[in-house]
C-alpha cells in the first residue's frame, strides 16, 4: 500500500473519534427528545387545566344568564300586574294626581 492509500483509509483513532461523535450526537438527541416530551406533557396539562377553567366559566355564565332571565321575566310580570291594576278601575293612568 502506498502513502496516498494509507491517508485515505480511516485510522483506528479517527474511527474511535467518529464513533464518540456519533454517540454524543445520539445522546444529545435522546436528551432533546426527553425534554421535548416533558414540554409537551406540560403543555397538555396546562391546556387541560385551561379547558376545565373555561368549562366552569361557561357553566357560571349560563347560571347567571338564567337568573337574569328570571329577574327580567319577574319585572315584566310586575309591570303587567301594575298596568292591569291601573286599567282595572283605579282611574286613568294618564291623569295627574
UniProtKB/TrEMBL annotation:
Coiled coil: 40-74
Keywords annotated in UniProt: Coiled coil
Domain of life: Eukaryota
One protein family per Pfam: UPF0184
Protein name, UniProt field: GL27121
Source organism per UniProt: Drosophila persimilis
Encoding gene (name): Dper\GL27121
Amino acid at each position: 500500500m502506498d502513502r496516498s492509500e494509507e491517508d485515505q483509509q480511516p485510522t483506528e483513532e479517527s474511527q474511535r473519534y467518529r464513533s464518540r461523535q456519533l454517540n454524543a450526537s445520539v445522546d444529545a438527541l435522546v436528551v432533546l427528545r426527553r425534554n421535548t416530551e416533558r414540554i409537551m406533557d406540560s403543555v397538555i396539562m396546562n391546556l387541560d387545566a385551561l379547558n376545565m377553567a373555561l368549562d366552569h366559566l361557561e357553566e357560571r355564565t349560563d347560571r347567571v344568564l338564567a337568573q337574569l332571565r328570571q329577574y327580567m321575566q319577574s319585572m315584566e310580570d310586575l309591570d303587567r300586574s301594575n298596568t292591569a291594576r291601573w286599567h282595572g278601575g283605579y282611574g286613568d293612568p294618564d291623569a295627574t294626581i
